[in-house]
Amino acid sequence: MIHVRHLSHTFGSYWALKDCTFSLEKGDFLFLSGPSGAGKSTLLRLLYGALPVQRGEASVADMPLHTLKHRQLPALRRKVGVVFQDFKILPIRTVNENIALPLEVRGLAPQQVVRRVRAVARALGLENHLETPCGALSGGEQQRVAIARAFVMNPQVLLADEPTGNLDTHLSFRLMELFKQFQAYGATVIFATHSKELMKRHPQAKILWLEDGAVRDANWPGARILKAPRHREREHGITLPPPDTEGGRL
Amino acid sequence: MMRTMMRLVRQGFADMGLYPWVQVCTLAAVTLMVFLSGLFLITLVTLNHELGAVKGETAFQVYWRAGSEMALVEEQWGRLKNLPWFTGLKTFTPQQALEELGTRLHGKKASSEKLFPFLTGKNPLPATALVSFAPNEEDTERWLKETGEYLQNLPGVERVLATPLRDELGQAWRKAGRYVMWPTLAFLGLLLGLVVGNTVRLSLFARAHEIEILQLVGAPNWYVRLPLLVNGATVGLLGGCLALVLLRFTFLQVHSLLQFPPLFMEIRFLPLELCLALVALPTLTGMAASYLAVRGDPSRTM
Ligand SMILES: Nc1ncnc2c1ncn2[C@@H]1O[C@H](COP(=O)(O)OP(=O)(O)O)[C@@H](O)[C@H]1O
Ligand SMILES: [Mg+2]
Questions:
Q1: What global pTM score does this model have?
Q2: Across the beta sheet with A206-211, what order do the strands follow?
Q3: Residue from B1, B3, B16, B217 to probe the interface with A (highest A Cβ count within 10 Å)
Q4: What are the residue boundaries of the structural domains of chain A, listed by start?
């Protein structure tokens, strides 16, 4: 369902992703983990075509991304549901309108749109906010709108970039169950998170550990692990440069 | 498909309410631009008409000898009207000329006996006539010469002055007009298109985020474009119509403003084709700008 081979990505001279190789089958659930800045978002953005493939190969839902034409992007995105780290919801439109967007793009009949939006909104506890403009919602509620919009179209592939980052532990555990349900319906899920707690809620899931843009660890044989070069020192924590005391305190 | 398109068109209208100030500013800018273009065009059209309408109009100033028998002169005036291509005659008897002179000098009307008592019975001014023709001859030069000679040979005529000045300007304009008119119109159209198009494009920046999101959830380009096209077309159409209304209003206020000597110009309103162009051009450029706004893919960044 998702195949990634020797995928690398560079921003200018900075390599955000280095030689990633792994495969997921239909119905797999993958935790994409690693410290902040490891390249999780970069990998996901490559997978939904927001970044062009520069080096290596990748395919999602039987669509090869490295040869994907510009005009094929809409087709890819209709197969892939994405929960964006920065939500990407329209603040001036209502919850209802935001969630309905992927369905309307597909030209679904209005009654069907209403039915599915209601069902998803209820599952995410948004049924009382359907007519509220998203700009008026709290961060956690906006995040749930973003999740609902990815769920509503029942995609074959679901990519979620830290979808519970703004939610309290209790709620994120509940949402975890929804993601698992989604997997049970046959979808392939990639869930980027750095929360060990959350990963414990789904012990059967695959885990890919990214660091400095490279795969440093994985718990299944479908991923190729790159060992960190020995000479590289690991940085621990963040330290401030010592204060300049020569002229005394300001 | 049809239903989706209808919905998108409806949404295009509804969405304009989402960013009212952007729309109002865009509309104002488009209206201003079309209005200014219209004013320029009105000037051009009026000039064109003035210079083109006096086709070959030539006036002859005819002076009779002072002291000529008035009955004879008046009989000749009557005959001038039967000349070919005759369009108008303005005559002054010596008496009238003197009174006119008096009025000019004193600023009020009075009889010449009162003004110039010493001139009674020995008016030194000649009888004059301004005869206008609008000849439509193959050889204008020859006609000019013949008519001048005919007038010169009338009994009692001392001097004939031909004043083809307006005509020369008119002829120059008719020759050069094509080369001036069309490039000017083309340039104005280009300018109008650029300004309107850019204004509409800028107004769509407010919706760049929305365009990105639509593309991210898999909307094909036509789906993203349709509401924006409706938006761009509406702003262009409304701006054009509003500007035309303003132009018409301005025209009604000033159209007789220049009707005084020596200009005697009647300001003309734009012909229907130009009115239509002033509405169609902003509408089309508004649509084109909206179309191009979705050409790139903002969802696909570096
Ligand atoms: N558009 C960009 N331009 C330059 N650098 C970028 C860009 N996007 C991400 N990066 C860099 O790439 C690295 C990986 O980023 P990201 O994939 O967002 O990390 P994560 O999601 O794992 O926190 C970071 O160091 C980030 O600063
Ligand atoms: Mg990230």
A1: 0.71
A2: A80-83, A157-161, A188-192, A29-33, A206-211, A214-218
A3: B217
A4: 2-90+156-246
